[in-house]
Specification:
This is Fe2OG dioxygenase domain-containing protein. With 240 residues, the protein is of the alpha+beta class. The protein is built from five helices and 14 strands. The strands form two sheets. Strands 1, 2, 3, 4, 6, 7, 8, 9, 10, 11, 12 and 13 form a twelve-stranded mixed β-sheet that branches. It has a two-stranded antiparallel ribbon with strand order 5-14. The longest helix is centred in the first third of the chain and has 18 residues, at 40-57. Fe (ii) ion (FE2) is lined by residues 152, 154, 159, 205. The site of fe (ii) ion has 4 residues, from loops.
Length: 240
């Protein structure tokens, strides 16, 4: 894992061409982390907000996505027989809704712009009405008690994952790994709260079960991250 210490996302975006080359070269053979972009207090407050939103609104079932879909929180639980087995709590905040906390759009839009520029996309891909793609902030909590994500590849650009927990504090076992020609690489022990983890989209990766021998207590423990899925508007948005 290669670590880049950087304090300004705007400065990185201003040098998008250089970063694209740097990351292309790095991500060919390993993962990369951008460390130091946002203060710990700011990100803790963001995570608290997401947790309070769930406490206030409860859990929803599955709903169709369209420009009337409210922000909501749901359990994603796909058994081992499905094509992408996983279990976690997913909180989604859509661009067509007004956000009570300004850092939901502020930080997620930064992640999206960086993803777009470093991937060679137009700077506002997924961020404006009428664009072929749509992107929105999703916050995932892998709860203690074994929440996990099976090995998979992602589509499109490289993945830009903001880590919002710390192994050793929020959980003790499990977490991110990837597979390469040299085998299994367990990354979580190298990750810090606030890191932006970058993975090539065709890299096979997943999340080992988080504290599988404990029972989830409904609190904030476990592994947290924010990312912004990028999907074709025509494939995810449906008429109300
Ligand atoms: Fe992924």
């Amino acid at each position: 894992m290669r670590i880049f210490e950087e304090s300004s996302l705007d400065a990185m975006i201003a040098e998008a061409k250089r970063w694209r080359m740097e990351l292309d070269a790095t991500l060919r053979s390993e993962s990369a982390v951008i460390r130091g972009l946002w203060s710990r207090d700011r990100l803790l407050e963001l995570r608290d907000h997401v947790f309070r939103f769930r406490q206030a609104n409860g859990l929803s079932g599955n709903m169709a996505y369209n420009e009337g879909t409210p922000d909501h929180v749901k359990i994603v639980d796909k058994p081992l027989g499905s094509n992408r087995p996983t279990r976690f709590v997913l909180s989604q905040f859509f661009p067509w809704n007004t956000q009570a906390h300004a850092d939901i759009p502020a930080i997620s839009q930064g992640l999206m712009r960086f993803r777009n520029l470093a991937s060679g996309f137009a700077p506002d891909t997924g961020m404006r009405a009428g664009c072929e793609y749509v992107s929105w902030p999703s916050v995932i909590q892998y709860r203690r008690g074994g929440d996990f994500l099976a090995a998979h590849r992602d589509q499109y650009a490289f993945q830009c994952i903001l880590i919002l927990s710390q192994m050793g504090e929020d959980f003790t076992e499990g977490g991110n790994y990837y597979l390469s020609a040299t085998g299994h690489h367990f990354e979580e022990p190298n990750l810090r709260f606030g890191d932006v983890l970058l993975l090539k989209s065709d890299l096979v990766h997943g999340v080992h079960p988080i504290d599988p021998h404990l029972t989830d207590d409904g609190a904030m423990g476990g592994r947290w991250m924010m990312f912004c899925p990028l999907a074709k508007r025509s494939e995810v948005l449906r008429a109300a």
